[in-house]
Amino acid sequence: MASITLEGLRKTYAGNVQAVKGIDLAIEDGEFVVLVGPSGCGKSTLLRMVAGLETITDGTLKIGDRVVNKLEPAERDIAMVFQNYALYPHMTVYNNLAYGLKNRGFKKPEIEERVRKAAKMLEIEEYLERKPRKLSGGQRQRVAMGRALVREPAAFLFDEPLSNLDAKLRVQMRVEIKQLQRRLKTTSLYVTHDQLEAMTLGDRLVVLSAGKIEQVGTPMEIYSRP
Ligand code: ADP
Ligand code: ADP
């Protein structure tokens, strides 16, 4: 795993929309940071800049010691988990997990080993031959996480991964993500507007407001303030 460092990170969209206005943040190796704040405050823009899905207007982004501002998403050694699962409907679970590795030129034995390992960790081994439509919402979400996991990335990015699930599953997946985090010590940046998710998962919370950091602290520090 690796640290993620943001120095003076800015994003100005066409029309002079200043979505992110100079963010300084150091996410330590193995730390789970949750980004919260009202709709439109810039959470998604910030996450997408780290992922490489959005260009950086100004500032420096480092993963470990490496400046990655100009690198393609695939070269950043980070994996993103989306809320809409982003699974391939015509592929089995196995192939959904294997696909990215195949594209990256991994050999079959290595792919099989990584897929088995991730499937075991997420307890989806029994579903490897199924298509996504034969899975429950929670199982699909695990496959989505599995696709990130098999890459064994330096860091994980989560874009409201649980917001499409019903309340019961959300609680269950929250616990699972927490357990994974304990086991794997993943460096993570997690966007949500669910306060319970933020409190349960975050080592630290970053509260964003109109493109700027308003507060940074542990869940206790943030939510116990008057
Ligand atoms: P959040 O994820 O917190 O809801 P966003 O990062 O989506 O916030 O949006 C931050 C601001 O940037 C908003 O004012 C939004 O309207 C604007 N914005 C987001 N994406 C674009 C875009 N592609 N072009 C122009 N403005 C955008
Ligand atoms: P495609 O039709 O897209 O080639 P396949 O189902 O044939 O997809 O699988 C692609 C590769 O992955 C094949 O080499 C296959 O042997 C392997 N594979 C698929 N499912 C499993 C599995 N459960 N365990 C091990 N290897 C598998």
TrEMBL record:
Superkingdom of this entry's organism? Bacteria
GO terms for biological process? carbohydrate transport; glycerol-3-phosphate transmembrane transport; glycerophosphodiester transmembrane transport
Identify the GO cellular component terms for this protein. Answer: ATP-binding cassette (ABC) transporter complex, substrate-binding subunit-containing
**One GO MF term attached to the UniProt entry:** ABC-type transporter activity
Task: Give the source species.
Answer: Vreelandella nanhaiensis
Q: Which UniProt keywords apply?
A: ATP-binding, Cell inner membrane, Cell membrane, Membrane, Nucleotide-binding, Sugar transport, Translocase, Transport
Can you give the residue ranges of the ABC transporter domain?
Answer: 4-226
Q: What is this protein called?
A: sn-glycerol-3-phosphate import ATP-binding protein UgpC
